[in-house]
Amino acid sequence: MIRLQNINLTSPEAIQRLANNHAIAVNLRDAFPHPYTIEDAITFLGLAENGVLGHVFGIYEDNTFVGCGV
Fold first, then answer.
1. Sheet with 64-69, edge to edge strand ranges
2. Which residues have CB under 8 Å from 8's CB, separation 6+?
3. From which domain of life does this come (predicted)?
4. Of 15, 35, 38, 16, which is closest to residue 25 (Cα–Cα)?
5. How far is CA 7 from CA 4, 33, 46, 68, in A?
6. CA 64 vs CA 3, 19, 23, 36, 56: distances in Å
7. In whole angstroms, what is the distance from residue 20 CA to residue 2 CA?
8. Residues 5/60, Cβ–Cβ less than 8 Å
9. Among 24, 32, 42, 55, which residue has the least CB neighbours within 10 Å?
10. Chain segment 1-59, per-residue pLDDT in tens
C-alpha cells in the first residue's frame, strides 16, 4: 500500500540512500548535487522543517520510505 504523509525528519540516511543516484541528479534542476551526501540530506530536511520548500511529503510503501515530493 502506498501512502503520503509528513516526511520523517529524523531519517536523513533514507533520503541520502535514495537521492545519491546519478540518474536522478541529471534529470533534476542543476542545483541537485551528485554525489548526494548525508549533509545534503540533513540540509534538505532542515529546509523542509522550516517551511522553506513549501509542503514536503514522504512517499511510503508498506511503511518503507521510497521517496518524497514538494
1. 2-6, 57-61, 64-69
2. 14, 58, 65
3. Bacteria
4. 35
5. 9, 20, 12, 7
6. 10, 15, 22, 20, 17
7. 22
8. yes
9. 55
10. 999 998 877 789 999 999 999 998 888 877 789 999 999 999 999 999 888 989 999 99
Amino acid letter, residue 39: E
**C-alpha cell recorded at residue 25:** 541528479
The identity of residue 50, as a single letter, is: N
DSSP string covering the chain, please?
-EEEEE--TT-HHHHHHHH--HHHHHHS-TTS-SS--HHHHHHHHHHHHTTTTS--EEEEETTEEEEEE-
Cell numbers representing residue 51 in the block = 517551511
